[in-house]
């Protein structure tokens, strides 16, 4: 689901929706950085992740995307014909992390390990 940063009301609706999905047993995938990377590196995880876990305590499965940087859809400054339109993107999943230890800094480190050196 897309993030909602425009107003407090839309932000609150997004958090309520996420909580309901999780209570219903659905999977929710978020990008806790809150924005696209400008340099291919993982940005600091934002507090929204902590808020979600406080409202709806569930295990977290860390995921990492490999091969997206430099593709047509990244913000790589190398624009033009040399950008890869069709790229092999890999999704790497880690083991579930218990909500009691699912802190943003720890999860960010786990995602970094999963991604490795492939951007």
TrEMBL record:
One annotated GO molecular function: 1-acylglycerol-3-phosphate O-acyltransferase activity
InterPro entries membership: Plipid/glycerol_acylTrfase
Listed GO biological process terms: phosphatidic acid biosynthetic process
Boundaries of every Phospholipid/glycerol acyltransferase domain copy: 4-65
Pathway: Lipid metabolism
Entry keyword set: Acyltransferase, Transferase
UniProt keyword Cytoplasm, yes or no: no
UniProt name for this protein: Putative transport-related acyltransferase protein
Organism listed in the record: Pseudomonas brassicacearum (strain NFM421)
